[in-house]
Prior knowledge:
alpha/beta, globular, 8-stranded mixed beta sheet, Immunoglobulin-like, 6-stranded antiparallel beta sheet, Rossmann fold, 2 domains
Amino acid sequence: MRLPLALAAATILVAQDAPRRVNTYRSSGLQTAGQNRFVSPEIHTDGRVTFRVRAPKASEVILNLSGSKPQPLSKNSEGVWTLTIGPLKSELYSYTYSVDGMRVLDQANASLKTGINGLDASLLDLAIPNARFDSVQNVPHGATHIRTYFSKVMNRDRGLYVYVPPQYDTEPNRRFPVLYLRHGFGDTESNWSIDGRAGVILENMIANKKAVPMLIVMTYGYTDLTWAGGSSPEGIDKLGAELLTDVIPFVEKNYRSAPGRLNRAIAGLSMGGGQAFTIGIKNMDKFAWIGEFSSGLLSGVDFDIEKVVPGFIKNADKANANLKLLYIGCGEQDPRIAGHEDLSALLKKHSIHHEYATTQGAHEWKVWRTLLAGFLVRAFQSE
């Protein structure tokens, strides 16, 4: 039998007699190397957190923690900069350092927030003193699948994440409703799982009998990497076509999804909130549950709902007959809050049934995790 050339060459090298090498390797060197490492962030039992950066030649290091003002670190004789803050409230935080004006991630922390611009921030999950609704708890867990599908609308392969609840494995004959969940500008199909904790929130709520077991499908929300590719009327229409033509058929072919509009929901945050609102209302024959969180598209002073979804506001009877839930929400400190109040007032004026929710926070993930939980409480629930 003839061997492939590369394999034959490797075999010849093994077979040849060669001078023996002198062995100088010592495993103790690994222990010595580890002595120069440090923990960052270090979470203390009282809720305080210590941040550390090794930058011996830097003249200034600043901590930029979500929800807090920038704070300086102090350098010791070994060139390690340190800052202890808190106690902090139990929350999932993002942070970066500014080292002599350069934005830097925490090199000692492997938990990262990513997006279309690459590595975005380091993550700190402060889950003490008690478990949050969005932290991993001792409940039955589902799984998140990373899938690739071919988009005929975009004419290329695209990625999506699919969260399946624990019941998907334990009840093999059961079919599940589907939430199509859309991300914001700067993010990708991964962020609702990593930063939004969508699957974690759902499985905690299922365990507490507050939500229906469902699939959550998280897609890539751009036609290209521009603002227009996710927020312009043309971009949203193309994304809507992709969802109906490519994504939903892919999910229904590969997963035990329950059929029909009553078993489909669409929701999203910021850019994805505008997409969910627009695509959902234009396709009420496909979706009965719509959620919109912190959309800038719907909040501007020049927003004209008739241009975005023609005929919707003038036909309350049709909307109320088709939609089981229209849920809109925003953070109290978000500049978009006034626009959401206006939108809610407009819907109320035209007798369109909806739920309006607010929570403390700005344009940030803690707001969207809370609003998602509020939507999940209602989605696919019988009257």
